Amino acid sequence: MVRWGWIGALAALVIAATTALPGQAVQDRARPGTITAATAPSPALGEPVAYNLYLPGGYAEGKGRYPVLYLLHGRGDTKEAWTRVKSSLDDLIAAKRIPPLIAVMPDAPWSERGNWYVDSRHTGGKPVETAFTRDLVQHVDATYRTAPLRNARLVGGYSMGGAGALRYALAHQDLFAGAIVLSPAVYTPLPPADSSTREYGAFGDGDAAFSEKVYTELNYPALLGTVDPDLPSRLFIAVGDDEYANPDPAEARHDLDFESAALYNAVRRVPGLSAELRVMDGGHDWSVWAPAFEQAMIDLGAGLSVVPPTPLPGPPYGGAGADWAGGVAVHADGSTTVGYAESGQARLDAVVKGAGWTARLSTPADERLYGLAALPDGGVLAAGYTKGDLDGRHAGNATDDAFVARLDASGKVAWITQFGVGGAADRLYGLAAAPDGGAYVTGYTKGDLAGPNRGDKDAVLARLTPDGRLAWTRQLGGSGEDKAYGVAAGPSGVHAVGSTTAGFEGAASLGGLDGWAAGYAPDGTLQWTSAVGGPGEDRLNGVAVTTAGLAVVTGVSGGDLLAQAYTATGRRSWSATVATPATDEGAAVAPLAGGEVEIVGYTRGRVGVVAGGADILTVRLDGRGRQRAAAQLGSARDDGVDPFAEPNLYAATAPSGNVAISGLTYGGGGDGGVFQVTVDPATGLP
Questions:
Q1: DSSP 3-state assignment of 164?
Q2: Residue 116: DSSP 8-state
Q3: How many domains in the chain?
Q4: Where is the signal peptide (predicted)?
């Protein structure tokens, strides 16, 4: 779901009601779906697989492709069991909680209906797993208008079917993006003595109906170590609070509520897996499975897509260790310069990489970049912090000092300015080029950098001349922790944004962590401040001045991406929000022609096609804050946000009007690298 402020409310309603992903079928709201019976040939079984098929309303007349949901029944049940969810599917599709989809409900009569959906090694057993995951899936994709992609398939089941759905999601990640696991009949390390898993030969070997070795090989703990984190899967696990309680206290560990909690706590610790757990009122029956199915479909169904996700380009910048993005700049000739912090030799080095050159700003201590800005002569400004003597004039320094450097078009360092309070931490987090070739920088100080410190940390704004001299420094803060993350220069002055825990002059505390925005005159005179947020955790990360002269800020408020525009006097012009059920946060603002902006951030929800954990989010807003485009792209892992839940993203507008983005990605494996991509603001995609 995408929400806007009052100015764009009407447009939001129109867009939400009419848009669909490329190739995705659109539901006919006037008609419910239908269920019919069919069969699929199975070479593995030597006999057909019978199944019930749910087709959404409008399927016969349409041309689009559909995602597919496979539903596995419990032991002793038939393919008719799942037909009761038809009305739930109709309602969820009609309400646009899930996309129109096809549901396949296969019958599993083998091993006297106790086959556990595995390939049995028991005499007379059947290769059910092969039949379902190969023959049935291939038949469905060949017979119906499906999208043969893993992110267009889910599998679900209850009881024995819950165990089967879990196994298929873990053992066949190439087929399924997630699983609905309801009251799963899974037991670790072995089933109790009275369990039916021991009786039907599903886990047998030869004439033996049950083999501990076979069961252990096929059970989910053996699969967790084989999970591919580049094929992320999501599980929705639900169980009743009145499930069967084994009267033998020694077997209480195997009650399904206990086993489900153990499953949840095991899978959520595996890279590449995410999970939700619900304990619901009811027993081992549809009083639990029916409402749990609806919740699961809302959680998992929204991520279904008939088109593949948009990947990030590679290879990433950085070294073999942990690296962080440090900025991106685009020059008049269209070339791009990328900055990053590279791990190596037990320290971080600041690296700036331009067209045909690489510059390293380093000491035996740590250096980290937090911003680049292009200069008219083809050079760049770089800012960050150092724990060493980066400029050669701070021997013995052992605490964080702010630094700003100027590099020419060939990467040669023209000057470095290092400053801070001895014995205190001083960091820069934001950088903007001044009209005369100098710089504005923002960050924080724990000392008395430009006056007495008012709390833990105070926000800092500083102005540097074109030759690197500090022209002035301003310190802003209250009794709590105050940081400045972004800065932008415009015709009327300078704008800064950040966060505060207790508020300060003109930015009263709203509760929790607040965002703030401030406007300064060119000489550093504070003109206005504004608090942003509510009682929760809020912050502002980026700011840019539009071609219309508005200062557009972005960050997070209440878990949603927030963008707001301010006039030169601090009056709020418009406000826009992008919200999904998960976290969405803005990190940077790139100005476009006509007063428009491109907001760059990350989302853990769905705005376009989900790629992995946290994806890069791009949102184009017009001069009145109305959304014109939104998209997401990424790797199978987290992108754009670090392990501390702080965004690590930068954006810059190219002369062509496209937007260059650089940020942190874990998609290359290891401890993280740095990507750079250029997107078209018309689509938000490369």
A1: helix
A2: T
A3: 2
A4: 1-25
